[in-house]
Amino acid sequence: FLLGINDLVVALTGTNYFFPNKPREFHKECANYCRWAVLVRGALWKWAGWKSLLFLYLAEILWSIPPHPACAMFVTNHGSATRDEDG
Predict the structure, then answer these.
(1) Is residue 11 within 8 Å of residue 38, measured between CB atoms?
(2) What per-residue confidence (pLDDT) applies to 82?
(3) Nearest 5°: CA angle at 2, between 45 and 47?
(4) How many CB atoms lie within 10 A of CB 41?
(5) What is the pTM of this model?
(6) pLDDT at res. 50
(7) Alpha-carbon distance 85 to 17, whole Å?
């Protein structure tokens, strides 16, 4: 939710205030992305209603939350290192 608000601020002002020391080119590219993101969200809201955005937000958040704490053992972003002597 807060990143969506940040996207709106960046789209309107053309500056990402989280990164004030970045070069102007960075802010131009970031503002361009945010303008498109705000446009797409607005179109989804208009054509499919608020539930479409809720679905997208939940899908983005819930895919990474394991249904049971033990499931976290099987889902990782880190590869398993193996050594030849261990097999």
Answers:
(1) yes
(2) 62
(3) 5
(4) 16
(5) 0.64
(6) 92
(7) 51
On whether the CB atoms of residues 31 and 14 are closer than 8 A, the answer is yes
Q: Are 11 and 34 in contact (CB under 8 A)?
A: yes
pLDDT in tens, 28-74: 999 999 999 999 999 999 999 999 989 888 887 777 776 666 666 66
Q: What is the pLDDT of residue 70?
A: 64
CA distance 79 to 29: 33
Q: Decide: 56 and 32 in contact? Cβ < 8 Å.
A: no
CA 62 to chain centre: 13
Question: Which residue is it, tokens 């004030």?
Answer: 20
Residue 79's SS3 state is coil
CA distance 71 to 54: 25
> What count of other Cβ atoms lies within 10 Å of the Cβ of residue 44?
16
